[in-house]
Specification:
This protein is mostly helical. It has three domains: 38 residues; 31 residues, no CATH class; 76 residues, Cytochrome Bc1 Complex, Chain D, domain 2 (Orthogonal Bundle). Helices cover 53% and strands 5% of the residues. It has six helices and three strands. The structure holds heme C (HEC). The site of heme C has 28 residues, from helix 3, helix 5 and helix 6.
Length: 172
Amino acid sequence: MSEKQDSVVTNFSMLILLMTAMTVGLILLGTIISKITDTGPDPMEVAAADARIEPVGRVALTDGTLFIAGSMATQAKPVEPEPEVEVAAAPVVMDGEGVYNTACTTCHATGLAGAPKYGVAADWEARLAQGIEVLYDHSLNGFQAMPAKGGFAHLPDDQIKLAVDYMVTAAK
Ligand code: HEC
């Protein structure tokens, strides 16, 4: 090897050495800088990730067992039983006049749709001749334009009969 060749090899080795040193130096510098500037996970991103992995469903049993997305967390916070709600109040019991005023007066006070009018004897004469049982039957079950129970289906039969009695009495 000539001297010229020697110096080329030496220079080249020096260059490689220098570049290696620079590479190591940059790696160290980068590591240090990232250590200094690292502030931990972004709280916004953490919150967003928590929202994404939130369980899709929770089922609470009345005994306090809480199911969260298929897994079972036993005896988590006990579920308060719904307070009992009193729905059906006692049915209002009306006399014949009360039922008439509630359910029958619309048609029977005015003669609407050909209804026999309250207190008009002539309207009732032929109907009374059928006998009270037929009048009861037609009132309870309907008869031509006369709707069953006057359309007040929830009223008890005996209250409808009281209203018939009330109208029949007025028609005599
Ligand atoms: C929507 C109107 C209407 C209402 C409300 C109504 N009626 Fe009538 N009612 C009629 C009509 C119309 C007739 C006559 C039917 C016929 O003879 O064609 C009739 C006839 C009657 C008759 C005679 C039936 C017969 O056989 O001749 C009785 C009794 C009677 N209604 C009782 C009642 C009572 C009691 C109520 C209330 C609970 C009532 N109606 C409510 C329309 C009504």
